[in-house]
Amino acid sequence: MFSFAPTPGQSSADLYADLVESARALTDGEPDGVANMANVAALIWQFLPDLNWAGFYRMVGDGLVLGPFVGKPACIRIALGQGVCGTAAATGQTQLVPDVHAFPGHIACDAQSRSELVVPVLRDGQVIAVIDLDSPSPARFTPDDARGIKALAAALVTCI
User: Fold this and answer.
1) Which residues, 6+ apart, have CB-to-CB distance to 154 below 8 Å?
2) Which helix (H) or strand (E) holds 86?
3) What are the strands of the beta sheet with 126-135, ordered from one edge?
4) What is the per-residue pLDDT for 60?
5) Does the structural domain 12-156 have CATH classification 3.40.5.10?
6) Which of 22, 39, 84, 114 is in the most buried spot, having the most CB atoms within 10 Å?
């Protein structure tokens, strides 16, 4: 099968370039969006250290519904504007949260999560999903992570 993995010691920019390239290779020619999200969630988990959750919430109707992920069981439905994911979906803006306990209305699906990065996946200006990353470490995510996951989201627009 495939053996996608980051190169030890590589720069953040190179790691995310490899992640995006690997995601494109895994999803190329596959029309099933759920299968593609599942593989990409596993790929994120493999590429990024210090995560306790990595996956997708899909826009269904007027809210978010749990999609493929790696980690502990999660909240199934999130209303727009609620929590970090709902805020990202409602605003269409990336949410880089160094301390989830300081985020107004944070939804604690896993009490061990301390920081979070949520990036909307936009198609024709509309949110179709969000990529959600949680970490048990405070301030785990950086602006480099946000840029990298935004590039991943852009690469996935046509295949999820």
Assistant:
1) none
2) helix 83-91
3) 77-79, 63-71, 53-60, 126-135, 115-123, 95-97
4) 97
5) no
6) 84
Asked whether the predicted pLDDT for residue 4 surpasses 90, the reply is no
Rounded to 5 degrees, φ, ψ at 4 are -75, 130
**Amino acid identity for residue 96 in this structure:** L
Instruction: With beta carbons less than 8 A apart as the criterion, state whether 59 and 89 touch.
Output: yes
User: How many beta carbons lie within 10 A of that of residue 111, not counting itself?
Assistant: 8
Domain range list for the chain: 12-156
% of the chain at pLDDT higher than 90: 86
The percent helix, strand, coil of the chain (3-state, each to 5) is 35, 25, 40
The pLDDT value recorded for residue 33 is 97
Output the pTM of the full model.
Answer: 0.94
